[in-house]
């Protein structure tokens, strides 16, 4: 898996990429497999 970009928040990422922040949130909490074809993770 390759790191593409780091965002400050799910809201910022959603606005920039036109993705609902709830969908990104669902991926990072294992409720969804992907959002807009991307796999999302929190940076530790």
Q: How is this structure best described in words?
A:
InterPro entries: WH-like_DNA-bd_sf (IPR036388). By secondary structure, the protein is an all-alpha fold. The chain has one domain (7-43). The protein contains two helices and no strands. Helix 1 (10-17) crosses helix 2. Helices cover 36% and strands 0% of the residues. The protein has helices at residues 10-17, 21-28. 7% of the residues are buried. The chain is globular and about 20 Å long.
Write the SSE topology.
Elements: H1 10-17, H2 21-28
Could you list some keywords that capture this structure?
44 residues; 36% helix
Short recap of the structure:
The protein is mainly α. Helices cover 36% and strands 0% of the residues.
State the end-to-end distance: 16 Å
Share of helix among residues? 25-40%
Put simply, the count of helices is 2
Order of helices and strands, N to C? HH
Oligomer: single chain
* Total separate domains: 1
Strand percent estimate: under 5%
- Characterize the biggest β-sheet: none
Q: Low-confidence segments, ≥5 residues, pLDDT <50? A: none
């Amino acid at each position: 898996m390759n790191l593409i970009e780091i965002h400050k928040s799910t809201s910022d990422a959603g606005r920039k990429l036109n993705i609902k922040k709830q969908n990104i949130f669902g991926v990072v909490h294992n409720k969804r497999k992907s959002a807009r074809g991307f796999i999302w993770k929190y940076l530790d």
